Amino acid sequence: MKYYDKLIFELSKPGRCGYSLPTALRGCQTRRESKESPAVWREAPLDLPEVSEPDVVRHYTNLSQMNFGVDTGFYPLGSCTMKYNPKINEEIVSPFNGIHPLQPAETVKGVQAVYDFMDKALAEITGMKHFTFLPCAGAHGELTGLMLMREYHMSRGDLARTKVIVPDSAHGTNPASAAVCGLDIVVVKSKENGLVDVEDLKPLLGPDIAGIMMTNPNTLGLFERDIKEIAALVHECGGLLYYDGANMNPLLGMVRPGDMGFDIMHLNLHKTFSTPHGGGGPGSGPVGVAERIVPFLDIPRTSGFHGNFGIILRACAYILMLGRENLKLAGKYATLSANYIKESLKDCYKLPIPGVCKHEFVFDGLLDGGDVTTLDVAKRLLDYGFHAPTIYFPLLFHQAIMIEPTETESLETLDAFIEVMRVIAKEAAEDPESLHTAPHNTPIGRPDETTAARQPVLKYSRS
Length: 463
Description:
This protein has 463 residues and is α/β, with parallel strands linked by helices. The chain has two domains: 87-98 and 105-322, 3-Layer(aba) Sandwich (Aspartate Aminotransferase, domain 2), CATH 3.40.640; 325-445, Aspartate Aminotransferase, domain 1, CATH 3.90.1150.10. Helix content is 35%, strand content 9%. A seven-stranded mixed beta sheet has the order 1-7-6-5-4-2-3, with helices on both faces. Helix 8 links the parallel strand 5 and strand 6. The chain is globular and about 75 Å long.
């Protein structure tokens, strides 16, 4: 272990201090001076590390360098677009960092103008009528959209519609959001070609169906060619169509969910429109609706205490920077990049569904990997400086590797990734142990992820 790989507590030395403040500015109170109840007094002083300023700076700088991000390398995370975040977006947002939620509305008319513009722009891009900007993430948007769906049916006295249809290839948030909304989940199967089986869908439809949740292209990166028929069938039975906007990137300027027949949708601004995300935030998941759902939108559609204006403004800058014609290019280049990688690697990785994909595609492990698993491939990629793609999702394939390169990566970056993937395939055949024990040059190797998730150690103990 390197010296500055240690925990900040391990760098601590009694009596060491990295600051000096006049006594009058320290703001310390004795227990007698404190107005708080004795019940909240500490029994002992707070156990904080005692370190110098250089120790603090070096510790956190080194800690930041242990994290992988889109600014440090290629991040081909399928089903969760991780495109480069243009720095001009940060410049544009920085003057607005001081806005306070409670300041008078007349002092933030420019903010309202951004919301108004984004409402019109996103409506034009998606074919929806209006958007609400309250949801702070995609899953938050899903829940909001499903609540709108439920409210629409309840307003018509159609109380029996308590079920939502979800494809077996869906993002995991779809059934989770439906369950949180109090709706029952019905699964529709996919055909061998990865698309929704319309014949399996038909008997599921009836007076108890509130709607169907779909993303198009789906999680296999395939465009649902029967979407118009699916929309007609669901509408005929009285249900609504919900569009999971996580996979909107390849459709920018090309196809609109509203034109496919969707009634409600969310957009992941932190995916499609280049704004930063990951690590739990920030995010934004505005929800758009067709005209008949507009009366049920949140009032107000914007609020100082809801949504994420910084992310919305970044997305606004991205849309204005690209313009109508170049937004179309984003989707085209994302599709081109995905197909380029797929075709370049299909001779050493299993391609369960051949043919043209959209923004992402799925391999089912190695063609000739022996006992080397998808997890081994993902861990070995870290040794070569690339973040791993999404693995073991979708659940349709046992050794799934889902790759989404996005449109922001250069041909040289794609070629470098392809070369490394080919090297790993060769290692799997000739030296599988190098994959079983990977990664070899990261701060930690393979932690027990199950124990870490179920029994996390969140507090440092000196004992």
